[in-house]
Amino acid sequence: MQMLTPEPPIFVERTLALIKPDVVDKEEEIEDIILRSGFLIVQKRKLQLSPEQCSNFYADQYGKMFFPNLTAYMSSGPLVAMVLARHCAVSYWKELLGPSNSITARQTHPHSLRAIYGTDDLRNALHGSLTISSAEKEIRFMFPEVILEPIPAGQRARDYLNLYVKPTLLAGLTALCKEKPADPMTWLADWLIEHNPNKPRVQHQITEEE
Question: What region holds the Nucleoside diphosphate kinase-like domain (predicted)?
């Protein structure tokens, strides 16, 4: 009896990353690590939050002993907010960050970002969303103008591919087999650009001179 393996769903997660005020000067260095780790930086902005805004962002931590120090630290200077995207972005970003306490991170995850750039439990250099739902909430907080559309997955993804991608791709691959170019990848890329069904068409108006 043949076992049927389900097709993996097409799903790209987004998560929020913050470069905190005390390590903003390491922005380019940290971004390079992020990109080399397979993330795409979808959105990015530098801003400075007020203590009130920090309180709202960390509302779930309200009432804890460290809360006043946390809001003071996060509002002490500019920070960099980024929306990161990749497969399993939330879990991969948390893994790259390491433990929230930078002292612990240096002992157990010495190559993690918090081990490298953080100082202690409070000043741990970077922030990452804990879950997909918290990522959506935090992204809306830092990027209120961004519209987070649901990303197709499962049957919706297959329907999308069948309707918008496969017909053009099949035609391109058929043409590729007939042409047999020396550089098939470049040829196919050029063909897809030329035959993109959604490519804007320029209409030339012919005017008659009187």
Answer: 12-150
